[in-house]
Specification:
The protein has 334 residues and is α+β, with helices and mostly antiparallel strands. 35% of the residues lie in helices and 24% in strands. The strands form two sheets. The chain has a seven-stranded mixed β-sheet, sandwiched between helices. Strands 1-2-5-3-4 form a five-stranded mixed β-sheet, with helices on one face.
Length: 334
C-alpha cells in the first residue's frame, strides 16, 4: 500500500501488526519496539533491528563526509540495541550506490563504519550491494544479545513513574539548521554541527539501565522527544506531564538560540536525531535511582516529568499550559 494511504507512521505500524499478528510467537516481540526480540533459550534472547538511511531524506552528501556517514550509519543502528539494554554483536550492511560514487568514497564510508563497529566489538558479517539510479541508499541490520529478564520495552511505563533522558536535547536539530543555512561556523556552532554529524552513543548507559528493576520502560529518541514520548505513552496506556524548564539544553544550544532569537522548545522537543535514551522509573525509588546513576556515570540523569493516569501528554511552562505547534519527524506526515 502506498505511504499516502496512512496519516502517520503509527497508523502504518498498526496496520503491519494486524497483518502479521499470526507470525508472532507468545515469547517474541516484533513490530512497534526498537528491536524484535527472538528467544535463544530459556534465559537469553536475540535483539534484531534494521534501519535505512536514504540520501536527501536522512542526509545530504554535501554536508557529511563518507567517513562521518559510515560512523553515523552504524551509530544510529547501535542505538536501537542500546534502547532495549542489549549488547550488540553483529551487523549486515547493504548499500545502493549510483555510478557517480567513487571508489575512494566507498572505502572511506567503510573506514568510518569499521571504526565504530570495532569500538563496539560488532562483527560485520555480510550484506548486499546494488546500483542505484540516483541516490545513496544504506540499510543496516544489527543483532544483539541480552538476558531476557533484563529487556526494557517501551510499553512498561506506569502512572507516577518519573521520566528521564540521558542527555541534553536539540543540539542535532540546531546543527542541521546551521548546515542548511551556512557554510562557515563559529566555535559554538561547530559543536552543534558535530552533534548532528556524529551523534553520541549511550550503549553503556542502556546496558546499565537494563539491570535496574525500577526502570520500567525505555527507548531511544530518534524522531524527537515529543513524538517518541507519545509512542512510549501510547504503548504503555498512560499520560504524562512535562515541565519545559526541566528539558536539558546544552550551553551551546542556549547560546545560539538566544543569539539568533529562536524559540528553543520546538527544536528541543521536535528536532529529532538526539539518540539520547528516554526511560521511566518507579517514582517511589527515583531518589535512590538517581544516586546510583550518578555513581555510575558521574552525573544524575535528567528528570523531565512524570507519567500520570489517562492518555494525554501535557506540557507546562512556568506553571502554565504550553502547546506545541509541531511534532517530531514522521516519514508519512504530509
Amino acid at each position: 500500500m502506498p505511504s499516502s494511504s496512512f496519516h502517520h507512521e503509527e497508523s502504518f505500524y498498526t496496520y503491519l501488526r494486524k497483518v502479521f499478528s499470526s507470525h508472532r510467537h507468545q515469547r517474541e516481540a516484533g513490530i512497534g519496539d526498537d528491536c524484535a526480540v527472538l528467544p535463544l533459550d530459556k534465559t537469553s534472547s536475540l535483539l534484531v533491528s534494521t534501519d535505512q538511511l536514504i540520501e536527501n531524506i536522512h542526509f545530504k552528501l554535501k554536508f557529511i563526509s563518507a567517513q562521518e556517514l559510515g560512523k553515523k550509519s552504524m551509530l544510529v543502528n547501535i542505538s536501537d540495541i542500546s534502547a532495549m539494554g542489549g549488547n550488540p554483536c553483529c551487523a549486515f550492511v547493504s548499500l545502493g550506490l549510483p555510478k557517480s560514487i567513487s571508489k575512494k568514497w566507498i572505502k572511506d564510508f567503510y573506514k568510518g563504519l569499521k571504526k565504530i563497529s570495532d569500538a563496539a566489538e560488532i562483527k560485520v558479517l555480510g550484506g548486499d550491494t546494488s546500483t542505484s539510479p540516483k541516490h545513496v541508499f544504506i540499510n543496516i541490520t544489527i543483532m544483539g544479545k541480552i538476558k531476557t529478564a533484563k529487556i526494557k520495552y517501551r510499553n512498561g511505563a506506569k502512572a507516577n513513574d518519573f521520566l528521564y533522558v540521558t542527555s541534553t536535547l536539540g543540539d542535532s536539530a540546531l546543527g542541521l539548521q546551521l548546515l542548511l543555512k551556512q557554510k562557515t561556523f563559529s566555535a559554538v556552532e561547530k559543536k552543534l554541527v558535530s552533534s548532528h554529524l556524529s551523534p553520541r552513543l549511550f550503549l553503556r548507559e542502556g546496558q546499565w539501565l537494563a539491570t535496574q528493576k525500577e526502570v520500567h520502560a525505555m527507548m531511544d529518541i530518534s524522531d524527537g522527544l515529543d513524538l517518541d514520548l507519545r509512542r512510549m505513552l501510547s504503548a504503555s496506556s498512560v499520560g504524562a506531564r512535562v515541565e519545559l524548564e526541566d528539558i536539558p539544553l546544552s550551553a551551546a544550544f542556549q547560546t545560539l538560540v538566544q543569539r539568533k532569537k529562536l524559540p528553543p522548545y520546538p527544536l528541543a522537543l521536535c528536532g529529532g536525531e538526539d539518540y539520547a535514551l528516554l526511560f521511566s522509573v518507579d517514582g517511589k525509588k527515583s531518589k535512590s535511582f538517581e544516586a546510583k546513576y550518578a555513581s555510575a556515570f558521574g552525573h544524575k540523569p535528567f528528570c523531565i516529568g512524570m507519567c500520570q493516569k489517562g492518555k494525554k501528554l501535557e506540557y507546562s511552562q512556568k506553571g502554565k499550559p504550553f502547546t506545541l505547534k509541531s511534532s517530531g519527524f514522521d516519514h508519512f506526515k504530509p
